[in-house]
Amino acid sequence: MISFVLTRLLRAIITILAVVTFAFVVLRMSGDPAQVMLGPDVPQDVIDAFRKAWGLDQPVWVQYLAYLKSIFTGDFGVSMRDKASALDLVLERVPATLQLTIPALILKLVIGIPAGIYAALHRQSFADRGVILLAILGFTIPSFVMGLILVLVFSIILGVLPSGGQDTWVHGILPTITMSIGGIGILARFSRSAMIEVMGQPFIRTASAKGLKWRDVVWSHALPNAAVPIVTIVGFMVGSLIAGAVVVESIFSWPGIGRLLIVSVSNRDLAVVQCILLVIAATMVVSNLIVDLLYGWLDPRLRSRAAH
Amino acid sequence: MGAAKSNLVELRDLKVAFDGVQVLHGIDLTVGRGEALGLVGESGCGKSVTWLAALGLLPGKAGVSGSVRLEGRELCGSPRSTLESVRGGRIAMIFQDPSSSLNPVLRIGRQITEALALHRGLRGDAARTEALRLMDMVGIPDARSRFDLYAHEFSGGQCQRLMIAMALAGEPDLLIADEPTTALDATIQAQILDLLIQLRAETGMATVFISHDLGAVSQVCERVCVMYAGRIVEQGTVEQLFAAPRHPYTRGLFDAIPRIDGPRQPLVPIPGTVPNPKHLPAGCAFSPRCSRVLQSCHTELPPLVPQGDGRLLACARPVPLALVIHAAKPRTPARIVESALQ
Ligand SMILES: Nc1ncnc2c1ncn2[C@@H]1O[C@H](COP(=O)(O)OP(=O)(O)OP(=O)(O)O)[C@@H](O)[C@H]1O
Ligand SMILES: [Mg+2]
């Protein structure tokens, strides 16, 4: 058990390190922050002074080591643009992002999973075909297209919902729906196939042969087994909650982390971008860890395997 | 109707089709109270489907017709709640692959107490005590400490014992054992058979024993039904069939048994293979493989009719009685038949 936790932890650290390194290298290769921040017509000595001030005159590996050292001490750098702590800037935006992503996640769960399970239990029925069709539409249409369609229909044609901003909760409706549709489709399809797979297993026939009511066969025998694959995909969704907000926040000018990321990338605001990527990586790693632990809880076979 | 009164279950003209392909062509079968009936035949002849259909356990796409009566009460086409009240409580069923027939994510004890709550209203400590008694009864050593384990922590043979314990929980009048030993190795097979025989003696429940293994059938059962391609072709007491198999198919099954006792004879497998239910031969389905085939066998289906000695037989040219004496010794302890049959 201890080695199980240790390997997971080690893997988590390596993942985060890889993301951080990748972000660091790519950012430094993809344009000069001094140029972007200061504009095109700035004398060379101003640029040099800027570089020196931000440590950009150092060799890249020196910068990298300094960066690693500072994040291990909890210092995530300073925004070149706002001259404020990058971490504070990011954390400031977290509530706005959660205002969209949490309701979207709830929608995915409460619509996607029951729809998939219902379809699995009523195979070949009208409802089943409907669920499959909607699910495929849901996850094949990219979220920026979906967002634009929704804006066109509800903001422009019908004029019932605002197309951008964060003033009231009504402003959150379209972005939340946009964000959840793909996930609903994926979860519906996934839950459906997981449930169909489980319902075909011999132990389900045993449960029926025992005389259990159909409802109890489904609830106490099938669902706990279908939960294992479903939890996997839910964990993946939780892990990509923030990453998934990027596109939607930009479409709906929602002032969350996703939009901050876009703005900071185009400004080459290194510390902020790195900090956001670190937060995204950390969410993914933590949710993976939780999923791994849930596995053991849901499936005793995995539990005893992990123990050895 | 004195005979009918003692019948527990009666199948009449039971037919099953999957996606328009008929796999059972009208099965007539009765199981008496406390009786042990064997059902034999090659793989795919419809042994499992017969009883799954009787209990309404086939998938929705299966078309089932005919009559299944439990003490006169019709089950075929009856509402789900009626079937649910019969399953487990009146007729229990155990299956071929015990390890995957137990729920992998629920504790064993919970799976047994669930049946106890359902059929006998036992809960809490009473249920636990009774479940432990059942686990003890089917020979799970140290039941108390293994109550909270999961299926994968038991061996295949122990899983089958647990399945039997679960079946006993409902105190059924009939236990359908669908090839309960096929997935187990030889010594464990023998133990499970002994357990089934002993439990039947103790509880008086009727048993339908589905098997490839004629030796095992002769140990467990009094009466045997031989099925071929979705029909019963011969039915009689174990003694009758072992002393004198009349249908060429039954005879073929015996000839394919490796004999441990008596003179060593070469094994004679039945030539050819089981027909695909989609393309069943005209006339008698066994005719293309039959050594005693007549011209008429290819066109006319022989009905299942009672013989002088009480057995039922569906054959236009049965093996003559004189020829088959000593064909096989009754109660051959040959459990290795299965490989020859498959
Ligand atoms: N769910 C199903 N869908 C379609 N066909 C099926 C289904 N179950 C059984 N069959 C078909 O019904 C026929 C009888 O099957 P059944 O399982 O009763 O055979 P069996 O005599 O029990 O064989 P075995 O000894 O292999 O268990 C076979 O041809 C099989 O292919
Ligand atoms: Mg079978």
From TrEMBL, chain A:
The chain crosses the membrane at residues 12-31, 100-121, 133-157, 169-190, 230-251, 271-295. It holds the Pfam family BPD_transp_1. It is a multi-pass membrane protein. The keyword Cell membrane applies. InterPro entries: BPD_transp_1_N (IPR045621), MetI-like (IPR000515), MetI-like_sf (IPR035906). It comes from Mesorhizobium zhangyense. It is found in: Cell membrane. One of its GO terms (cellular component) is plasma membrane. This is ABC transporter permease. Keywords: Cell membrane, Membrane, Transmembrane, Transmembrane helix, Transport. SUPFAM superfamilies: MetI-like. It comes from the Bacteria. GO terms for molecular function: dipeptide transmembrane transporter activity. Gene3D superfamilies: MetI-like (1.10.3720.10). PROSITE patterns: ABC_TM1. Belongs to the binding-protein-dependent transport system permease family.
From TrEMBL, chain B:
It holds the Pfam family oligo_HPY. PROSITE patterns: ABC_TRANSPORTER_1, ABC_TRANSPORTER_2. GO terms for molecular function: ATP binding; ATP hydrolysis activity. The keyword Oxidoreductase does not apply. One of its GO terms (biological process) is transmembrane transport. It is found in: Cell inner membrane. GO terms for cellular component: plasma membrane. Gene3D superfamilies: P-loop containing nucleotide triphosphate hydrolases (3.40.50.300). Keywords: ATP-binding, Cell membrane, Membrane, Nucleotide-binding, Transport. SMART domains: AAA (SM00382). It comes from the Bacteria. PANTHER family: DIPEPTIDE TRANSPORT ATP-BINDING PROTEIN DPPD (PTHR43297:SF2), OLIGOPEPTIDE TRANSPORT ATP-BINDING PROTEIN APPD (PTHR43297). NCBIfam families: oligo_HPY. This is ABC transporter ATP-binding protein.
